[in-house]
User: Fold this.
Amino acid sequence: MKRYLIYSVALGLIWCFVHGTITFTSFLVGLVLGPFVIYPFRELYDFKRKRSYMNTIQKIPKQLKYLAVLLIEIIKANIIVAKIVLSPKMDIKPGIVAVPIRTETDTGITAIANTITLTPGTLTIDVSDDRKVLYVHAIDASDPQGLRQSIRDDLEKYVLEAFE
Assistant:
């Protein structure tokens, strides 16, 4: 129940920013609508599991670091994709690569899959049934081991720190 209240307060604040007016009435509307928005998604976020709020707060710097790394990787990938597109001879070998992952939680798997998809030139297609492998389509899969290593070292490491 305590988490519902905390998330409702957060959604009330978000509602104020989305609505464009920061007033008590606007906050109250968001606060009242919050539980109705949260309730259908309760199975995804496991409200019954005990979590340390201190641990959550301590992860904020790691999440900011993840965000910075993500932005840098997106910029680097944009440059690479621009070079591929602008080159007169497109010497690419698109393909699907199986990438083993270390993340175990739904949040971690979702974060790494979305991170891969947000990076230009790659797209997460599927997750294996045992949740240990992501299938990734790459615009240039000529070096599948290099792609796996890049995802593991440049992206997944920060996802593990921030969300696991």
About this structure: The mean pLDDT is 86. The CA atoms of residues 19 and 26 lie 8 Å apart. The radius of gyration is 20 Å.
